[in-house]
Amino acid sequence: MTGMKELTSVPGATGSLDETSIPGPEQGDSATLDISVVIPCLNEARTIAACVEAAWLGIRTAELRGEVIVADNGSSDGSREIAELAGARVVAVPRRGYGAALQAGFTDARGRLLVMGDADMSYDFTEIPRFVEEQRRSGADIVVGDRLGGRIRRGAMPWSHHYIGNPLISFTIRRLFGVPVHDCYCGLRLLTRDAHRRLRLNATSMEFALEMIVQGSLLGLRFSQVPITLHVDGRDHAPHLKTVRDGYRSFRFLFQHASITSYGIAGALALVLGLALLGHAVYVEAHGQPATLSGPGASALLLTAWMLAMLGIIARVFSIGFLGDAPDPQLRSFFRFAQLETGVVVSAVLVVGGAVLAATMRSWPALFQLGLTMCVIGLGTFIASFVVSLIGRAMPDNRLAVTARPSGSGSGSRNAMAEGNPDTGQNDEYSLETQEAMSHARKYNAWLVDTLRGAWGDADTVLDFGCSIGNVTHLVADRMRGTGRADPLVVGVEIIPEAAERFRERFADREDLRVVTADVTRPTEDLAALAPFDSAVSFNVLEHIEDDVEALAAVRRLLKPGGHIGLLVPGGGDRLYGVMDSDDRHFRRYTPGRLEARLEAAGFEVVSIKRVNMVGAVLWYLKGRVLKSHGHEVGQVTLFDRLVPLWRRVDAVAGPPFGQSLAAVARVPE
Residue 148 and residue 134: Cα distance in Å, rounded? Predict the structure, then answer.
């Protein structure tokens, strides 16, 4: 086979492929091993055997039980056969790319520790014991080799990589992410299996090495370094690394994942310089001299500052929504007030203000240019607001909402979700106060019932899950009696005992109303005895349930085949999530897409989803997001209720394009 004469040049390799050098079954066949060495390979017949042998020597020197995996990326030169003969387990990886090969090898590995290294003899796998010792000493999740702090043999690394590219990229990583790594692209490194499971590695090419470090930093993993020696590679073909292409990809990746502060600092600097130049230009023109350079320079810097700000926001929103990054606290604070509507208003103010400034300051070139710049920034802000809004629609629930449920205890968010009763999972006191206030909104409650007529209109028995004190439940029964049904029955299910008792007190004389104190996901015998129902309805309940799909599936099991469910849930998505949502322990607000996906996941066929109460959405946003008001006062509820006929007319005319609530009707397949 080709390349056999060169094997002896690899540090630590034996240079032979006799039977004694090949590991026996006792070294590599155990279900759980101490260490797995993964070597990505693409047409490395000249060097792969020596690398495999060196890896085995490193494993034996460390006195570990392990395996050597060659992740073959489609070699056509016999690399696979040579690797197997040298004692490696070969994993075929059809998807091309350095990162794709390593990820496939890691996934197939059985070791508690995972080591990666190239197949071109540039890394000395006999240094594996040093990585193992450092991991044991420091408890690091990832141990990275440091060629810059170790030794680089003459000709082993191009000068542009040695003195410019690698140091610059490593410096950028340290500044942006605070990772104590001085050689970010070193391909010889060790990570624990637990660290690999926590990482969500997606890069298929050379930026895989950066992705591991950046994601590790964002996840809070611990890093350490080991100085190593880089040798001249033994390949007889061009390297897979392309300086310009991979350098560009590296910086693109880093700035996609950089915190919003990184862009903000650069943008703030450009803004300060732009304003300083603008002041200089106005000063010069006030003294009768033309500001030939400072005026246009000020406009250019102000535009640059704006573009950096927009780029930072768009890049971070994209990486949070699609790349799994954690939201920045600064970004969450920003989105507390910066919604789509806010962007549109700011855009309008900038465009109008810029146009007025340009029209009235024609004799002052610097101010005239500032006016035009404001118009450009305003139009750009308008477009960027919609771009961010469209990306944000793909976000998981409340990912960027300041008021979102904290991920753990001790959250410092002042709008964190209120504490719940351990038995009910709800804020019982707030819920009861809200329902007592809403009992005065008779027209509003009737409007809600009418929006779900498609679910209960043909039913004789209806289940109202999450009925609380019965504000809406009794109206459903009234409407059913009004259609001429002889013996309609509406059964309410309520998890808060105090609310269920209040229901019984209010409607003790109604034979067509019953209430069961239970969790709908765990029906009691009383509830099961009344099933199956023709229809089920729910009014502003689903958002209180953490696993809403499980709850919907439980309700489906209580319905007849062909039965319908009607849901009224908070709409507007994350943009409307405010302090009243967190006070009332709302896990989410819904968008039509989210609600449809949950209904289908629970086994329903969606019939319709429409937006309801456009005016209410505006008032909710102002009260919960702008004024940060807590609770519902009876006077406010009564005033709103008097105007419900007008609000219904607005909805009928407008469509509406957005709403405080979503009304959905779905059916159980027959």
Answer: 18
In this structure, what CATH number is given to the domain that contains residue 31? 3.90.550.10
When mean pLDDT is compared over 36-50, 173-187, 341-355, 395-409, the highest value belongs to 36-50
Whether residue 565 is found in the same domain as residue 592: yes
CB proximity list for 187: less than 8 A, separation 6 or greater: 116, 117, 118, 122, 123, 145, 209
Residue identified by tokens 């469910």 is 565
pLDDT at 6: 34
Whether residues 457 and 567 fall in one domain: yes
Place of tokens 């007849």: 560
Q: List, edge to edge, every strand of the sheet that includes 223-230.
A: 89-92, 66-72, 33-41, 111-116, 189-192, 142-152, 223-230
Question: Can you tell me whether residue 61 is helix, strand or coil?
Answer: helix
The reply to whether 330 and 469 lie within a common domain is no
Q: Which class for 113: exposed (0-12), middle (13-18), buried (19 or more C-beta within 10 A)?
A: buried
Phi, psi of 252 (to 5 degrees): -60, -45
The pLDDT value given to residue 635: 67
Please state at what angle helix 166-177 crosses helix 208-218, rounded to 10 degrees. 20
pLDDT tens per residue, range 374-415:
999 999 888 888 777 766 655 544 455 543 333 333 333 334
Q: Where residue 518 sits, what CATH number does that domain have?
A: 3.40.50.150
Residue 26 has pLDDT above 50, yes or no: no
- Nearest-10 crossing angle of helices 365-392, 294-322: 0
Domain count, the chain: 3
Q: Is residue 409 part of a domain?
A: no
pTM: 0.46
The amino acid present at 539, given as its one-letter code, is F
Cross-strand bridge partners of residue 663: 568, 610
Average the pLDDT over 173-191 and give the result.
Answer: 84
What pLDDT, on the 0 to 100 scale, is given for residue 252? 65
The Cα–Cα gap between 73 and 102 comes to: 10
Contact criterion met (CB below 8 Å) for 34 and 4: no
Rg, C-alpha atoms of the chain: 33
Domain extent for 52: 4-257
Q: Report which DSSP code applies to 336.
A: T
Same domain, 343 and 436: no
User: What is the DSSP secondary-structure string of 458-519?
Assistant: T-SEEEEET-TTSTTHHHHHHHHHHTT-SS-EEEEEES-HHHHHHHHHHTTT-TTEEEEESB
Handedness of CA 449, 451, 457, 462 (dihedral sign): negative
Residue with tokens 């930072």: 312
The tens digit of pLDDT for each residue in 468-527 reads 999 999 999 998 888 777 788 999 999 889 989 999 999 988 989 999 998 888 888 888
